[in-house]
Design goal:
alpha+beta, Phosphatidylinositol 3-kinase Catalytic Subunit, Chain A, Domain 5, 3 domains, 5-stranded antiparallel beta sheet, 4-stranded antiparallel beta sheet, 16 helices, 14 strands, 34% helix, 15% strand, globular
């Protein structure tokens, strides 16, 4: 909670539909968060803050939600705030920038609020938060000429040193790429733009309007001290998902001043660089239920929400539930135990058509390679490991997969077909892991062992 009891006020804008327009006004008191749509926005027939808080449900009625330990703001807005983790790259970047503006010693929600005012716009998704309308209009209309710059030694700072969390060079980074919007997560990421043809060593600031010849990307850096080889692992996981038939954004493994990095094309923008409605399942579900964190749920409950929620989450429930089933299976088969609610998002594939579906795959990294993340699944499914139906032994893995499929309404024949597809698409996975160059042998051995255990249990059933 904030140490400053003064009510806080901001405005929410968006570029949905291609034109900057104010969506409404936000107020935060010491007890609640309130948001009201503007009358003129209600006339546009555009998505609002999120699925649960859509204009068609609230109209002119103020949306009010009590502040809690987990949510000072409405969930779609809370997702704009980098987590309060001491080693969060995005948060530290913003706080160091604020310190250069004589805003020092900020903690808790006071820090969140100041961070939001400088970086709550232009990020992932369609929501832009500004301190006031004047700043919003200036940001939208005073757009500097887009320029791509070579990443060379002339940048005069060492990202290798920077990524060890000794942030002496952060001011230079800010001068280089500007107070660029950030995305959540502990892995260092920046939102940038690169040539539309792909990574060639040149970067620019994210686009704010149609900018021919460039594409927006999330650039992820490798923390060798914490996650050695993670760029290679994520690249392999993206390869596997693409081969398995999933929609996957374009991506380029690259080098940024000698540091391994991965540039992933953003899917939350259309061909004219306008935002598409995009929202994580965490934001959607937390808007209607008291969740404590992004893994405080069950995969079975996601499929139930797709079918039964008063809010229509997707346009094609059958396809969405099959997507979820395949995502979970391939996560198990590649050692990604971190498929939580923030790694599953919904979007409108094309602006204005209301064809809502799961987004392309992102962050499928096989985190079981690292001992601190060696977990089969961050969320439960199919009563795995539980005693059910008066059984004397806990539900085994293959049984749990079948139970989850049944709960999702996937017929037995179809769920066997999907399981066999995921097994076939990942059959050479261990061999490909063993060939990775930058992943330490210890991590490769752990990952291969875990994946082999899962595969053997599923192959014997399917």
């Amino acid at each position: 909670m904030s140490t400053d009891n003064t009510d806080k006020e901001a405005v929410i804008w968006t570029r949905l539909g291609g034109t900057p327009r104010r969506m409404g006004r936000l107020y935060v008191t010491d007890k609640e968060c309130r948001f009201t749509y503007d009358d003129h926005y209600l006339e546009q027939d555009l998505p609002g803050l999120g699925l649960v808080y859509a204009p068609k449900y609230y109209g002119k009625t103020t949306i009010s939600r009590p502040r809690t330990e987990k949510f000072d703001l409405l969930p779609p807005l809370q997702s704009l705030v980098p987590p309060r983790q001491q080693d969060n790259f995005q948060r530290n970047l913003a706080l160091k920038y604020l310190a250069t503006q004589d805003k020092k010693g900020l903690v808790g929600f006071d820090a969140d609020w100041e961070i939001l005012k400088i970086s709550g716009h232009g990020g992932i998704g369609h929501i832009d938060l500004f301190e006031n309308d004047e700043i919003a209009e200036g940001w939208y209309h005073n757009i500097p000429d887009h320029r791509l710059s070579e990443v060379t030694d002339e940048l005069s700072f060492s990202l290798k040193e920077f990524m060890t969390w000794f942030e002496d060079d952060i001011e230079v980074l800010i001068q280089t790429v500007g107070p660029t919007p950030s995305v959540g997560g502990a892995i260092p990421k920046l939102l940038l733009s690169i040539p539309a043809s792909g990574w060639d060593g040149r970067i620019g600031l994210p686009t704010r309007q149609k900018t021919p010849g460039v594409t927006d990307v999330v650039l992820k850096f490798e923390q060798k001290n914490r996650y050695p080889g993670i760029i290679e692992l994520e690249t392999l996981a993206l390869d596997i998902h693409r081969q398995a038939g999933f929609a996957v954004p374009r991506y380029w493994a690259c080098n940024f001043k000698g540091m391994p990095a991965l540039a992933v094309e953003r899917f939350d923008r259309d061909q004219d660089d306008n935002p598409l409605y995009t929202e994580t399942l965490y934001s959607i579900l937390a808007s209607g239920a008291p969740l404590n964190n992004n893994f405080d749920y069950q995969y079975d409950l996601i499929s139930e929400a797709i079918d039964k929620s008063a809010v229509k989450i997707v346009s094609d429930p059958v396809t969405a539930k099959e997507h979820l089933f395949k995502r979970l299976l391939l996560a198990l088969l590649t050692g990604n135990g971190d498929l939580h609610l923030e790694n599953l998002s919904i979007y409108d594939r094309h602006a204005g058509d209301n064809k809502r579906s799961f987004t392309p795959v992102y962050d499928p990294t096989p985190m079981r390679a690292y001992s601190q993340h060696d977990l089969l699944s961050v969320m439960p499914f199919g009563n795995y490991g539980e005693l059910v139906d008066k059984q004397e032994t806990p539900v085994k893995l293959a049984q749990a997969v079948a139970r989850f499929a049944s709960h999702a309404g996937i017929p037995d024949e179809r769920h066997h077909e999907l399981a066999q597809e995921m097994l076939a698409s990942s059959q050479d996975y261990n061999d490909r892991v063993s060939e990775l160059k930058t992943v330490p042998d210890e991590n490769k051995t752990r990952l291969i062992k875990r994946v082999t255990e899962v595969r053997e249990k599923l192959v014997s059933h399917y």
